[in-house]
Automatic annotation (TrEMBL):
<dbReference type="InterPro" id="IPR000008">
    <property type="entry name" value="C2_dom"/>
</dbReference>
<dbReference type="InterPro" id="IPR035892">
    <property type="entry name" value="C2_domain_sf"/>
</dbReference>
<dbReference type="Pfam" id="PF00168">
    <property type="entry name" value="C2"/>
</dbReference>
<feature type="domain" description="C2">
    <location>
        <begin position="5"/>
        <end position="79"/>
    </location>
</feature>
<protein>
    <submittedName>
        <fullName>C2 domain protein</fullName>
    </submittedName>
</protein>
Length: 79
């Protein structure tokens, strides 16, 4: 955390199922903070063909609106 911003490090995902039989998995992460701020990240590298262990190594910054009441959610989707 620096100043009035929240820093989020998106590193990697492990253990999600590869349910796509016809094409490679293209993982996307959507981050939502305090119900108002959104960030989207497409996979930067998937070391396996199926994409079951993708990694991003990205940093995201969110403005802290109310330091005591806030929720960060991260959802992983197949693009």
């Amino acid at each position: 955390m620096k100043g009035d911003q929240l820093e989020v490090s998106l590193l990697r995902a492990e253990g999600h199922a590869d349910n796509d039989f016809l094409k490679n998995v293209e993982p996307v992460v959507i981050l939502k903070y305090a119900c108002t701020q959104h960030r989207v990240s497409c996979v930067s590298y998937a070391p396996t063909v199926s994409g079951t262990y993708p990694w991003w190594n990205q940093f995201f910054y969110f403005d802290v609106i109310t330091p005591h009441i806030a929720e960060l959610t991260m959802k992983l989707y197949d693009n």
